[in-house]
Design a protein that fits this description.
Layout: E1 13-16, E2 22-25, H1 27-36, H2 41-48, E3 49-55, E4 59-65, E5 81-86, E6 96-99, H3 102-125, E7 149-151, E8 161-165, E9 171-175, H4 176-183
Antiparallel strand pairs: 1-2, 3-4, 4-5, 5-6, 7-8, 8-9
C-alpha cells in the first residue's frame, strides 16, 4: 500500500515534517508525539495553526492541521487541514473547507478570510451576498465535506449542531462546540 492510500476502518495519524508535509505515523508514535507536545498556546501557534483571522470583531476564520486523515470513505491524499468559520451570523457559522496540503490550506484560509470580508461589505451595503468559494485544491469534493447547515429548534436555542451528509447519503449531527474547541 502506498504512503497516501487510506486504510479503511483504521484511523491514520499524521505529523508535519519540517517542510509542513504530512507524514503518516502509527497510533503509538502519535501518542508519544502528543506526550512530548501537549496542547498549549505555543504548540498551536508553532505547529497546528495555519491561519487565524477575525472579521468585524465577531467572525473568526481558523485553519488548522488536523493530525488525523479526514478522508474517511475514499482513497487519495490524506485530508489533514481544515478551515472553519465561527460567527454569530447563521450564514457564516460552521462553514468548512478541507485540504490535503499546507500550501492549499494557507491559500484556502486566505480565500475564506477575503470572502468573509466581502460578505460583510455586501451585507453592509445591501448588495447580493457573494457565493461561497470552492476549496483551492480538492477537485472532486466528497459528499461528507459538504457545507454544514446549522439547525436549531428556535431562535432561543443556541446553534449547537451541524448536519452533514456522509458518502452514503446518510445525515448525521456534529457538535459545533466540539469543532470550535479543536480550532481554538
Amino acid at each position: 500500500m502506498g504512503v497516501w492510500e487510506h486504510t479503511f476502518g483504521k484511523m491514520q495519524y499524521y505529523i508535519l515534517d519540517p517542510d509542513k508535509r504530512p507524514v503518516p505515523i502509527t497510533l503509538e508514535e502519535y501518542m508519544e508525539f502528543r506526550k512530548k507536545h501537549p496542547d498549549s498556546n505555543r504548540y498551536w501557534q508553532k505547529y497546528r495553526r495555519v491561519g487565524w483571522d477575525e472579521v468585524e470583531g465577531e467572525t473568526r476564520i481558523s485553519t488548522i492541521f488536523l493530525e488525523i486523515d479526514h478522508r474517511f470513505w475514499e482513497t487519495g491524499d490524506p485530508i489533514v487541514f481544515e478551515t472553519m468559520t465561527f460567527s454569530p451570523h447563521e450564514l457564516l457559522d460552521g462553514l468548512q473547507w478541507r485540504y490535503t496540503s499546507y500550501e492549499a490550506a494557507l491559500q484556502g484560509h486566505q480565500i475564506a478570510a477575503a470572502w468573509v470580508e466581502d460578505w460583510y461589505m455586501a451585507a453592509e451595503r445591501g448588495l447580493p451576498l457573494p457565493p461561497m468559494p470552492d476549496p483551492p485544491e480538492i477537485e472532486e469534493e466528497p459528499d461528507w465535506t459538504s457545507l454544514s447547515v446549522l439547525a436549531a429548534s428556535s431562535e432561543d436555542t443556541p446553534l449547537a449542531l451541524s448536519s452533514t451528509t456522509d458518502s452514503s447519503g446518510d445525515e448525521y449531527e456534529m457538535d459545533m462546540d466540539q469543532l470550535q474547541q479543536e480550532h481554538e
